[in-house]
Design goal:
By secondary structure, this protein is an alpha/beta fold. It is built from 19 helices and 15 strands. The protein has a domain of about 260 residues: Rossmann fold. Helix 9 packs antiparallel against helix 10 and helix 12 crosses helix 13. The mean pLDDT is about 95. It binds pyridoxal-5'-phosphate (PLP). GO terms for molecular function: L-serine hydro-lyase (adding indole, L-tryptophan-forming) activity; pyridoxal phosphate binding; tryptophan synthase activity.
Length: about 450
């Protein structure tokens, strides 16, 4: 067996997802309705199937993965774990660097891990139509793929600026049979409201979520699917970390530190939470969420109740937030521009169990290019954040002579993001530090809870 690429057999795809709630020191903060009282599961079934709602609040440690879902996972899972020997050599570090390649899925990222599961549960509940939003197009293409696998109709509200800038992501969704509209549209109340204030509104993830949720809530035959943030999404993503644990066992190694890019928290939680079970049992391991300096949700946001969308249609979640009306600067890691974070990720960060750092944009592309030139794979701009943080740690190890084992999640490939690389090479990319004043201002707009 090669010790550069550590593979598992198809039958080693996990049979259960791991639910971190079972190993958290405190129960998760309740999700609240508009009246300030905890939302009941019933309230969520207007837009989600009951099986998904149950997963959202489950306290069971292990949740079985349906055989039909595992069967589709086989198209690309188990994903390979690599030892990045050429990168280690280029850095001259005594540290060992490993990465898990989630870019091998048909859509090119980790997102199908949840899209397939969500489509399955909706189909099982008799739903044949799904709506969602997408920013850069990673989630939209994953749900389009999943819809196709289960013969379902999929409609996608795509943030207008990305719709115009990423025509090939749009074509991908169309290839997999989905309908795609530039958001804000005039098809929903939320969209019309956004257009009334600004006819040239470039859109945002928050507005697109409002449009999709509004449509799902207004139609009995239609449900909503979200690509990050919610507990059931991060649950589905734990296949990444569960596989990685088996792969480290095969390699006879174990990570000291894990890095993953963090937008809504799903790939970070997916790779890190299965290791948190070991940490809860006394193992010394640090789990580091890496976010952009331009959207520093965990590192500079407020830990408070806030809406998940910009209009205020969703229940209130206690999370790190930059404010639901946050207008993200146009950085080139579209998947990391969300104003909030998953409730469990937020709480574990607040309790000091996981760590977070923010990195500036230019340095992330520099790291991504170094990775591509040594390991060969061109990473998604989101993944470059984890690579940056991992390389920085490897360079610290070089200074100190420590031979740490470092592990990062390569959440996706960058084949549809070459326009961003282009900007980087032509010197048109800039660093952007989210202003302190905007962070203070967000406090005034947070919903008042009791
Ligand atoms: C969506 C996305 C992310 C960020 O989303 P999380 O839910 O935080 O994982 C990171 N990397 C890639 C490639 C993505 O598509």
């Amino acid at each position: 067996m090669s010790d550069t690429k550590i593979l598992l057999d198809e039958n080693e795809i996990p049979t259960h997802w791991y639910n971190v709630i079972a190993d958290m020191p405190n129960p998760p903060a309740a999700v609240l309705g508009p009246d300030g009282n905890p939302v009941t599961p019933d309230a969520l079934t207007a837009i989600f199937p009951m099986s998904v709602v149950e997963q959202e609040v489950s306290t069971e440690r292990w949740i079985p993965i349906p055989e039909k879902v595992r069967e589709i996972y086989r198209l690309w899972r188990p994903s390979p774990l690599y030892r990045a020997r050429r990168l280690e050599e280029a850095l001259g570090t005594p540290a060992k660097i490993y990465y898990k390649n989630e870019g091998v899925s048909p859509a090119g990222s980790h997102k199908p891990n949840s899209a397939i599961a969500q489509a399955f549960y909706n189909k099982e509940a008799g739903i044949n139509r799904l709506v969602t939003e997408t920013g850069a197009g990673q989630w939209g293409s994953s749900l389009a793929l999943a819809g196709q696998m289960f013969n379902m109709e999929v409609r996608i509200y795509m943030v207008k600026v990305s719709y115009d800038q990423k025509p090939f992501r749009r074509s991908m969704m169309q290839t997999w049979g989905a309908e795609v509209f530039p958001s804000p549209t005039d098809m929903t109340e939320s969209g019309r409201k956004a257009l009334a204030t600004d006819p040239d509104n470039p859109g945002s993830l928050g507005i697109a979520i409002s449009e999709a949720v509004e449509e799902a809530a207004s139609r009995k035959d239609t449900n909503y699917a979200l690509g990050s943030v919610l507990n059931h999404v991060i649950l589905h993503q734990t296949v990444i970390g569960l596989e990685a644990k088996k792969q480290f066992e095969k390699a006879g190694d174990y990570p000291d530190m894990i890095f993953a890019p963090c937008g809504g928290g799903s790939n970070f939680a997916g790779v890190a939470f299965p290791f948190l079970a070991d940490k809860a049992a006394g193992k010394d391991i640090s789990l580091v969420a890496v976010e952009p300096a331009s959207c520093p949700t965990l590192t500079r946001g407020h830990y408070a109740y806030d809406f998940g969308d910009s209009v205020g249609l969703t229940p209130l979640m206690k999370m790190y937030t930059l404010g639901h009306d946050f207008m993200p600067p146009g950085i080139h890691a579209g998947g990391l521009r969300y104003h909030g974070d998953n409730v469990l990720v937020s709480q574990l960060y607040d309790e000091g169990i996981i760590d977070a750092i923010a990195v500036p944009q230019l340095a992330t592309f520099e790291a991504g290019v170094q990775f591509a030139r040594t390991e060969g794979i061109i990473p998604a701009p989101e993944s470059n954040h984890a690579i940056r943080a991992c390389i920085d740690e490897a360079l610290r190890c070089k200074e100190s002579g420590e031979a740490k084992t470092l592990f990062f999640n390569l959440s996706g490939h960058g084949h549809f993001d070459m326009a961003s690389y282009d900007k980087y090479f032509s010197g048109d990319l800039e660093d952007y530090e989210y202003p302190e004043a905007a962070i203070h201002e967000a406090l005034d707009h947070l919903p008042k809870v009791r």
